[in-house]
Every structure is written in structure tokens, then in C-alpha cells.
Design goal:
The complex is a heterodimer of chains A (about 375) and B (about 600).
Chain A (H helix, E strand, L loop, with lengths): L14 E10 L2 E11 L4 E5 L6 H9 L6 E6 L2 E5 L11 E4 L11 H11 L4 H14 L15 H14 L4 E5 L7 H18 L2 E6 L2 H7 L2 E6 L2 E6 L1 H6 L4 H6 L4 E5 L7 E2 L1 H10 L8 E5 L4 E17 L4 E6 L5 E6 L8 E6 L2 E3 L12 H4 L1
Parallel strand pairs in A: 3-8, 3-9, 6-7, 7-8
Antiparallel strand pairs in A: 1-2, 1-4, 4-5, 9-10, 11-13, 12-18, 13-18, 14-15, 14-17, 15-16
Chain B lengths: L3 H13 L18 H29 L10 H7 L1 H34 L5 H13 L2 H11 L5 H6 L14 H25 L3 H9 L4 H12 L1 H17 L2 H7 L7 H10 L5 H30 L19 H27 L16 H7 L4 H33 L3 H15 L2 H12 L14 H26 L2 H9 L4 H29 L3 H6 L7 H10 L3 H25 L13
Helix pairs in contact in B: 2-14, 2-17, 2-18, 2-19, 3-14, 4-8, 4-11, 5-8, 6-12, 6-15, 6-25, 8-11, 8-12, 9-10, 11-14, 13-14, 14-19, 15-25, 16-25, 17-20, 17-22, 17-24, 18-20, 19-20, 20-22, 21-22, 22-25, 24-25
The chains are: A alpha+beta (about 375), B mainly alpha (about 600).
Chain lengths: ~375, ~600
């Protein structure tokens, strides 16, 4: 366990994961995860399936135990390797992928159940249930059974139930996976709206990078049980840590270029110079991420050959071949025939950190 | 994907159909339903009509005979008889009391073994399921060996009540007690199936809402599996009602008659109107039983709650420091309802005569020697039972395979109705079926001029009718899981119906067909009710033998035979257990 800040030095609010480690049958699922989640933030755990994000969520909720490490909320330790606060005492709530509405209760009873357990009674109880249903526009359906509702309506009831009890932390486990595209957009708006209104901490698990970028203030990108990058969405897109993150978030190409300077953000001149130097078959090269929108057709630029051209609606997407055979993605408003010889200028590039030896590096193709 | 296309192209003409508005409706998937399928269909139809429908109709016909006599018609006379109503009342009393006990025991075991973190779960389940598989007359016999002044076990321990004190089990409550124990596994299975189907998210959502384990049980789990409890209760009630072995061994000595034993008694007293009388009584008990079944189906439909989400082990209730105590309680209950009676049974089989305590001097294997000696009726009964069970199991497997295929692949109201008809002889009490078979086969078969009555043949036909449902169920559920595309692919490759059946369908259904075969064998080898009325000299079965030996006072030999049967049952169950992992879920009743 590397450099851990003792918990007493941290602000006594927010959710903290300290060296959280989880093994199932000898296999490491979550590997020494450290996260500090500010109170009231909207955080996404993002990664491909099997990266350990759902296990992390379930450990926060208290459904899975930790092999080692510690999870604490404010000054309370929720879980460590030797003690475990049961889920019912954590003051959290969760939106499940399958909504998990109880089929033997009405919509109103579903929403009211956490309130009942908190001891609300009589008119106070009724008012809170009504309010919670009103915020998701489900008041007219209060006496229906969940099975009589559509998918989107169920999702809204689940959300109302989740928020009725005013939890400190709201956990969302791929809540949009079962909805169609149109509904997803409107549910995303509801999540954003709710987060703003309640001020609770939202932790959102997804494998969809667009969803994570659209919703979260901060994203924890996970891969093979490890935290790869923990950053704001813009930073993740503009300054990815390594080639794996670069490939996972957004479009782009990772090209090996000979670089003379040490900055990470490379100017157009620096990239052009490096591209031009490729024809000398340089020996020392480094990984550079080039986003397709930064590639422009320019007669004064370096030569390239069109190898693929796909119509994407608002523009064409190209795959170009550089002089030394490396490929580069680009956009253009006009289609070009395969094999066409063109010249390009790159407006900027981002130097990636080499991953430590031994760790596998997925190529762009393997991520897609 | 390319692979989607062929099946889509095939499905299209199937829905527009060939317009085969024949009696048996349209073919769901294979548009090229051919003459060979029709022949197969009509052959199976005939078998079902003969086995499942004809006996009930014959019985009804007999019961309604002489309706012109008005108040003196046999059916009305039976309804006016006080003995009928007493027996019905006894039947209802013992069955309801037995059902209540079964609910208590089965419910408790289902909740503990499905939900909590007790250790050795599969062993507990196996032990708890045993009473269901042990023949009722063996259960009765072993309990009789456990209690009363002559009990060898109590005598060995020196705690037997004084001679002359009554056997407490010869009473209505004794009958109800054993009925409850015998049928508790039915409630256990129904409730357990429901509990296992509850998605874990529903529990987790409640936990996060602030509900602790006990609240989750009361607020979420029990309401969600209410349907399972009612279903289990209804099945247990119908089974209690039809049980013959227990009230025969415990009730008749106390002159306490329930409907099945009343029918048995009337059968023994030959009289002019005997057949009409027993037919009328059979119709009466059949109506009560089928009402129970209908009630169960209705409850199942009404209480069915759609459960979305991943079904899995619902949750592990952490018992904490209560775990050892819970395990101890389970062990004590099993000791009481299973191990002690079996121990008493074994003890009884090892003493020279009842009332003698077991010790090194009195220990004798004489009963076993007699059982296995060649002159005895035991070996013959064993041979008869094994022969009947084997033949029934194999024949039913042969019928079930094509039947399951057609039931799954073709749909029409008639086929739906046939499927329901198959269940009737199994749902009806065994006595009813036995009487129906006697009525059907009392005279030699037309044209063939062979008389089944008084031969093993009549028992075999009754077994085929009764256990078709047992044999069909696993094969049918496997067949439903079989993707039609597998067959369509073979069809596109040029395989005809028979080729498809033999090269694709049969190999995939084989494990469940074998499981069905074993289940039939297991049930048939234990069978008493049907054979008690259909046996004749030289054609007795194991069940009949135990019953007769006990009736004639040879409880020691009866115990030895019973011990052998229990060993046989346990061995067969173990085989099925080992087979379990190759079968679809739910085929083996006590496994998941």
C-alpha cells in the first residue's frame, strides 16, 4: 500500500476509498483502489466490462466485503478488512439496472418503504411520498403496480424511491442500460436535475464513455481492477494519461513520433516537424495522441494517402496512411477516393505517458 | 448477422402458414410439417386417450349407472350413507391437519435452507427430501416400530410403555402427523422454487432502504413467495387426501376410515352393488381432489408476480451466533422425523420377535435370510416390483420423447387440452385410478380376448397412466429449452423429421429422458395405493407385501423388507444426485 494520507488529515466529509482490494477465488478484481470523492459531487466509475467498477459500487453499498483496505464516509468507517457496516445502516440508496421495484407493492408503497423504515408516519409520510412522486411526474400512477408501468416509468419510480429517503450517497448501477436511446437522453436530464436539487453524492457506474462524460463532474477510469485515471471529463479527453485511456475515451489515433522537446501539449509546428522527420525512419519515438478534428487538409503540409473513407452524416471520416505506414484518423466535409494522395497539417498533439513495463497495452482496435 | 437470415426466412412462411386448418392446428415453426408428423401425432393422441382419458370416463359411467332408480341410484345411495360422510369428514380432518404440519415443517426448512448461511446445505436438503421418496407404508411401519409397548427400540432402551397401553399412532392425529411429515417435502419444494426465483436486487434495494434482515423477510420475501406457500399447501392437501398407505396402516386398526380406506374396505366385501358403490365413492374423492388442483392452479395464476432482474441465491442471511443453534434445531427435527423412525425400523428387523429388546444375544438376521430365501413371497414381490417399474419406466420414456417433442413444437387448443389430460391420472388419488382400471379390464379385452384382470398387466397399465406425467415433465421442460434453430439448421442441411429426431433432438434430450425414467422407477417401486387394489396372488408388489406382512402380524419381516426398500430408494436418489449436473434446472425435484 503506497502513499496513503492518514484519514484524520482529510476533510471529515465525503466518501473515501483507501487501498481497497478485492479478490474472488484468488483472482484480483479490484486492485489497491484509492479515491477521494467530495461530498455532493457526481462521480462516474467508467471502464469496460470486467474492470471491477460494479464490484467497487457493491463494496461501497455493503453488499460485497473488502479483502483489504478501507471505505469511509465522513468520519465513519463503512468497511474495512475486519469490520463491515450492514447496508441498511449506511444511509445510501441505489438505482438498479433492473429497477428492483417490489412487485407486491404499489408505486406509492415502493417509494414510501424507505420512509416507513425511517419512522415517518401519517400525514408526514403521505406528503413525502406525494412529493417524491411529483418530482418524477408519477403522481397519477401512485396506486398502480410496477408491472403495469413502462420501462421509463419504472425507472422514474426507482429514482423517486431512491431519493425519497434523502440519502447521503446515491449509487447508480448502469441505470440506463435497459432503455432506448430517446429515453436515455431524458433520463440523463433527470439525473442531472436530481443531483443539483438534492446535493447528495452520486456515484454512477457505466461502460458508456459518452454517458459518463455527459453526467459526471469527475470520472474514475478503471481497467483490469486498477484506477487508470481520475479526472474531470474535459481533462480526460484532452489530457489522457496513456494510450489505453486515449483509446477508450473519444476518437483519435496514437502515432509514434520523434520528439525533441519534453512538453506534453505539442504545438502544430512541433507535430509537423516530427511528422516530416518520419521519412528518415527515426529510432527514438514516443506516443502522441492526435484527435481527428485536429487534422486538416493543407497543400503545404506533410504527404499522406487515403486508405478508408466512411460517410458519417455531418462529415466524412478518413483513415490516412503516413509516409512510414502508420495510420491517422481525420475528418473532412468532402469525400475523397481511396488511394488519393493528399497533404495534411496537424494543429496539436498530446504526448502520452509510456505505460510501465509489464502492463499490457491494448491497441485502439482491441478497445473498439 | 448472416445467421439471422435463414431463421427469419423460415419463420415468415410459418406465420402465413399453409392454412392447414386441420383438427390439430398449425405448426409453429416448421412449415414443412409433414405426413410423418401427422401419423406420429395421431398415434400419440390414441395412447393418451387410452391411458389418461378413458379410465376416468369409464369410472364416471359406472358411477352414474342406474340413475333411473332415482333415490335408490347407487350414487345417490352412496351420498345418503352416513359412512360416506364420516369418511369424508375424516379425510378432510386428517388432510387439513396434515397439510398444516407440512406447511410448518416444509416452510421452516425451505426458509432456513434457502436463505441462510447454514453449513452442509445439500446434505440437509437430501435428508429432508427422503420422507417423500420413502413409501408411506414404510413410514407408517417405522413410526409404529418407534412407539407403543412392543417397540424394539424402546424396549432396547428400556423405556417402552407397559404392555397393554395403547399405540398412540392408531388415531386421527397419528394419521395426520405422518401425513404431514410425508408431504412436508412438497411444501418445501414449492416454496424453495419461489424463493430461488426472487431477484437479489429486490432484497438489496430493501437493505439499502434501511431494512434489516428480519424486516426483509417479513416485508419483501414472504409476500413475494406467498404464491409458493399456497401452491405447496394445495399440493400437500391433494396428496394427503389420496394417501392410502398411512391411513390404512394407522387408521384401519382403530376403525378410523378415510375415503381411500373406505373404498378398500368395500372392495374386500364382495356384493352385488360393490362396483357401483366404490365407483361412486371414487368419483366423490376425485371431485374433492380435482377441486384442490383447480384451486391450486387458480392461486398460482393470481399470485404470480413478474420478477424482473437476475434470479440468483436471494441472499445469505447471516445467522451469526445463531448458526450453531439453527443447525442443532435442524438436526433435532431430522432426528425425530427421519432418523429415529428409521433406526426403529432397523432395530425391528434385527430382533427375533416384536417386544424383544435388541442385544448381542437377540441379534438375528433371520428376517433377512427369510426375505432372501427362494421360497418366500418377498423375492417374488421384489421381482414383480422391479419388473413393473422397469417396464413402465422404459415404455414411458419411449412415449415421452416424441410426446414432448410434439407438445413443444405444435400448438393448438386440442394439444393444450391433451397436455392437461395427462396430469389427471396423476392428480387423482391412486384408489380412483385403480377402481377405474378394474372397471375397464374386468372383462377380457375386445377382439384380443386377453384378460388383463388378475395379471401383472393391469398394474402395468395403471402405472403407465399414472406416471406418464412424471416421465413427461423433465423431457418436456428440456424440450422447451431447446432452440428451434438447432433443428432448422439440420432441416436446411437436408435432414427429414426422423433424421432430425434421432441426430439432433434425441441426443440433447437423453439426460432428462433418463432422469424421467429414474423418477418413474423410483415412484413405481414404492407404489402401494394402485397395486393394493389391483394385486392378485402371485402378482403382489413390494408395497403390497409390506402391507400384508404387517397386517398378518409379521412386523419383523415387514421391517426387513422396508429397510431394503429404503436402501434402494437412497441409492437411486444418490444416482440421480450425481446425474444432476448434466440436467436442466428443476428436473430433479430436490436439486437446484
Amino acid at each position: 500500500m503506497a502513499t496513503l494520507i492518514p484519514s484524520s488529515d482529510l476533510p471529515a466529509r465525503g466518501l473515501r476509498l483507501h487501498g481497497v482490494h478485492k479478490e474472488f477465488a484468488g483472482q484480483t478484481v479490484v486492485d489497491n483502489l484509492n479515491l477521494e470523492i467530495e461530498e455532493g459531487s457526481f462521480v462516474a466509475l467508467l471502464g469496460p466490462s470486467g474492470c471491477g467498477k460494479t464490484t467497487t459500487l457493491r463494496m461501497i453499498a455493503g453488499f460485497d466485503t473488502l479483502s483489504s483496505g478501507r471505505i469511509s464516509l465522513g468520519s465513519t468507517v463503512l468497511a474495512s478488512d475486519h469490520q463491515q457496516l450492514p447496508p441498511e445502516l449506511r444511509n445510501m440508496s441505489m438505482v438498479f439496472q433492473s429497477y428492483a421495484l417490489w412487485p407486491h407493492m404499489t408505486v406509492a408503497d415502493n417509494v414510501g418503504y424507505p420512509l416507513k423504515l425511517k419512522g415517518y408516519k401519517g400525514s408526514d409520510y403521505q406528503r413525502r411520498v406525494r412529493e417524491a412522486l411529483a418530482t418524477v411526474q408519477m403522481e397519477p400512477y401512485a396506486q398502480r403496480r410496477p408491472q403495469d408501468l413502462s420501462g421509463g416509468q419504472r425507472q422514474r419510480v426507482a429514482l423517486a424511491r431512491c431519493l425519497a429517503s434523502e440519502p447521503r450517497v446515491v449509487l447508480l448501477d448502469e441505470p440506463l442500460a435497459n432503455l432506448d436511446r430517446h429515453l436515455r437522453a431524458s433520463m440523463e436530464d433527470s439525473f442531472r436535475d436530481f443531483h443539483r436539487r438534492t446535493g447528495a453524492t452520486f456515484i454512477y457506474v457505466t461502460h458508456d464513455q459518452a454517458e459518463a462524460m455527459a453526467l459526471a463532474d469527475r470520472i474514475a477510469v478503471m481497467h483490469k481492477g486498477q484506477l487508470v485515471q481520475w479526472d474531470a471529463p474535459e481533462a480526460l479527453y484532452q489530457r489522457p494519461q496513456n494510450a489505453w485511456v486515449a483509446g477508450f475515451i473519444g476518437q483519435g489515433s496514437v502515432v509514434r513520433l520523434p520528439l525533441s522537446s519534453s512538453e506534453r501539449l505539442l504545438s502544430s509546428a512541433q507535430v509537423q516537424q516530427a511528422l516530416a522527420a518520419l521519412q528518415n525512419k527515426p529510432s527514438a519515438t514516443e506516443e502522441v495522441l492526435i484527435r481527428p478534428q485536429h487534422v486538416e487538409l493543407d497543400p503545404a503540409g506533410v504527404p499522406a494517402t487515403v486508405t478508408h473513407c466512411v460517410f458519417k452524416g455531418e462529415r466524412y471520416q478518413f483513415v490516412l496512411q503516413l509516409q512510414d505506414g502508420q495510420s491517422l484518423q481525420a475528418y473532412h466535409w468532402q469525400g475523397l477516393p481511396t488511394g488519393a494522395q493528399i497533404a495534411i497539417t496537424v494543429r496539436q498533439g498530446w504526448r502520452l505517458q509510456e505505460q510501465p513495463a509489464g502492463s499490457t497495452r491494448p491497441t485502439l482496435a482491441s478497445v473498439a | 448477422m448472416m445467421t439471422d437470415r435463414p431463421s427469419g426466412a423460415l419463420a415468415a412462411p410459418a406465420t402465413t402458414g399453409r392454412g392447414s386448418g386441420l383438427l390439430l392446428g398449425w405448426c409453429r415453426r416448421n412449415p414443412s410439417a409433414t405426413a410423418s408428423q401427422q401419423v406420429l401425432l395421431y398415434a400419440l393422441l390414441l395412447i393418451i386417450l387410452l391411458l389418461s382419458v378413458l379410465p376416468s370416463l369409464r369410472l364416471l359411467w359406472q358411477a352414474l349407472q342406474g340413475w333411473q332408480q332415482g333415490l335408490d341410484a347407487p350414487f345417490i345411495r352412496m351420498l345418503r350413507s352416513a359412512a360416506t360422510w364420516t369418511a369424508l369428514e375424516h379425510s378432510l380432518y386428517t388432510s387439513l391437519l396434515g397439510t398444516a404440519l407440512a406447511l410448518l415443517l416444509g416452510g421452516l426448512f425451505a426458509l432456513i435452507l434457502t436463505l441462510t448461511d447454514v453449513r452442509g446445505r445439500s446434505l440437509w436438503v437430501f435428508l429432508f427430501m427422503l420422507p417423500m421418496m420413502i413409501p408411506p407404508q414404510v413410514t407408517a411401519l417405522s413410526w409404529l416400530q418407534l412407539s407403543g409397548p412392543a417397540s424394539p427400540l424402546l424396549n432396547t432402551l428400556g423405556i417402552a410403555p407397559p404392555l397393554g397401553s395403547p399405540q398412540p399412532l392408531y388415531s386421527a392425529e397419528g394419521v395426520a402427523l405422518l401425513l404431514g411429515i410425508q408431504h412436508a417435502p412438497l411444501v418445501f419444494l414449492a416454496l424453495r422454487t419461489h424463493l430461488l426465483a426472487i431477484p437479489r436486487e429486490l432484497i438489496e434495494a430493501a437493505r439499502l432502504s434501511g431494512a434489516h434482515q428480519r424486516r426483509v423477510l417479513w416485508d419483501i420475501l414472504l409476500p413475494l413467495c406467498r404464491g409458493g406457500l399456497w401452491t405447496g399447501a394445495a399440493i400437500a392437501f391433494v396428496s394427503c387426501l389420496g394417501n392410502f398407505g398411512i391411513p390404512a396402516m394407522l387408521g384401519i386398526p382403530a376403525s378410523y376410515y378415510v375415503l381411500p380406506t373406505l373404498i378398500y374396505q368395500k372392495m374386500a366385501s364382495f356384493g352385488a352393488d360393490m362396483l357401483s358403490d366404490v365407483a361412486s365413492l371414487s368419483v366423490l374423492i376425485g371431485v374433492v381432489a380435482l377441486t384442490g388442483v383447480a384451486l391450486q392452479n387458480r392461486i398460482q395464476r393470481q399470485q404470480a408476480l413478474p420478477l424482473l432482474g437476475m434470479a440468483g441465491r436471494a441472499l445469505d442471511f447471516q445467522l451469526g451466533r445463531w448458526r450453531p443453534w439453527t443447525e442443532l434445531a435442524l438436526a433435532l427435527i431430522l432426528l425425530l422425523i427421519l432418523l429415529l423412525p428409521l433406526l426403529a425400523l432397523i432395530t425391528s428387523s434385527l430382533v427375533p420377535a416384536l417386544g424383544v429388546p435388541l442385544n448381542w444375544h437377540s441379534l438375528t438376521f433371520a428376517a433377512y435370510q427369510e426375505m432372501l430365501s427362494h421360497q418366500g413371497a418377498t423375492l417374488r414381490a421384489l421381482g414383480n416390483s422391479l419388473l413393473l417399474s422397469t417396464v413402465a419406466a422404459l415404455l414411458l420414456m419411449l412415449i415421452s420423447l416424441p410426446l414432448a417433442y410434439l407438445l413443444a413444437r405444435r400448438q393448438s387448443p386440442l394439444i393444450h387440452w391433451l397436455h392437461a389430460a395427462i396430469d389427471v391420472p396423476y392428480a387423482l388419488p391412486g384408489v380412483v385410478l385403480a377402481i377405474a382400471c378394474i372397471l375397464l379390464f374386468a372383462r377380457p379385452l375386445p377382439w384380443l380376448n386377453i384378460s388383463l384382470y388378475g395379471s401383472l398387466g393391469i398394474i402395468l397399465v395403471a402405472y403407465l397412466a399414472r406416471f406418464l406425467a412424471v416421465s413427461l415433465k423433465p423431457v418436456h421442460s428440456s424440450m422447451l429449452q431447446l432452440d428451434p434453430a438447432l433443428e432448422e439448421a439440420a432441416q436446411l442441411a437436408g435432414a427429414g423429421l426422423l433424421q432430425r429426431l434421432f441426430s439432433i433432438v434425441l441426443p440433447l434430450l437423453a439426460p432428462s429422458a433418463f432422469a424421467g425414467c429414474l423418477l418413474v422407477f423410483l415412484t413405481a417401486v414404492n407404489e402401494l395405493t394402485v397395486s393394493a387394489l389391483l394385486w392378485s396372488a402371485g402378482n403382489e408388489t413390494l408395497g403390497v407385501l409390506i402391507f400384508n406382512l404387517d397386517e398378518s402380524g409379521d412386523a419383523v419381516l415387514a421391517s426387513a423388507v422396508a429397510v431394503m426398500i429404503v436402501a434402494l430408494v437412497a441409492a437411486l436418489m444418490t444416482v440421480l444426485n450425481l446425474l444432476g449436473r448434466y440436467l436442466p434446472q428443476g428436473v430433479i425435484p430436490w436439486q437446484r
